[in-house]
């Protein structure tokens, strides 16, 4: 992704405090004890990188990615979903697997982003990867194999995510992974700078920290689970989901997530 383009850690009080927090974390062998610090680190990172998350709500690639997720769910409810997917440039054969499906979705996002005069942004890449991870993890768990099966199996798996409850789960997974990747996009500089410290000794500790952060963000995204499901169901029934109303929804969902992380920090 784009971590190498971020450069050095900013010389501000917020980032200096964050470096100290991560350097003193210490996850190895005691994840439970350290987990209480993860929410503070997540909120502190968000505070330092708040402008970046504000831009996400205005990023056309981010908004399109979530819009496409809604269209996948709706396509699964049609009598010929391969034709419905083809309207979004997604081509499946009768023997396509979840892996094939996810790859086609990624390609469709790539094509849309390539039409942007400014090309892909760090935020659109984060959204694209988060969508792929959300789809493959949830659909993959609903089929016999990530790499085998048929297009009909994939449709059945996605259809289970096309109800109000199912889409709420899909939305939670997407936003949870998006926020985790967004925070780690900035934290990667911090963990690199503190690697070798007494508490963050090696890459194994960094991987453990990243896993804990992802779990925390997945759980924090529960705040938007019902919101996603209700918006999806109500909007499609009343007027239909389009890119414009999806963009407005994404902005509100991200504000809810930001507020949740800030409240967690305030409650410490």
Mind explaining what this structure looks like?
The chain is mostly helical. It has two domains: about 10-55 and about 175-265, no CATH class; about 60-165, no CATH class. About 70% of the residues lie in helices and about 0% in strands. α1 packs antiparallel against α2 (about 30-50) and α7 crosses α9 (about 165-195). The protein is globular.
Name the helix and strand elements from N-terminus to C-terminus, one letter apiece.
HHHHHHHHHHHH
Strand tally is 0
Structural class per helix/strand content?
mainly alpha
First-to-last CA distance: 33 Å
Low confidence ranges: 1-12, 26-35
Tell me the fraction of residues in β-strands, as a range: under 5%
User: How many domains comprise the coordinates?
Assistant: 2
Helical coverage, percent range: over 70%
Shape: globular
- Report Rg: 19 Å
Mean pLDDT, to the nearest integer, reads 83
For the largest beta-sheet, the strand count, sense and barrel status come to: none
Number of helices: 12
Q: What topology emerges from the helices and strands here?
A:
Elements: H1 13-23, H2 31-48, H3 50-56, H4 60-75, H5 81-86, H6 98-114, H7 122-140, H8 151-159, H9 164-194, H10 203-220, H11 225-238, H12 243-266
Short structural description:
The chain has 268 residues and is mainly alpha-helical. The protein has helices at 13-23, 31-48, 50-56, 60-75, 81-86, 98-114, 122-140, 151-159, 164-194, 203-220, 225-238, 243-266. The protein has two domains: 11-57 and 174-266, no CATH class; 60-164, no CATH class.
Features:
268 residues, 12 helices, mainly alpha, 2 domains, single chain
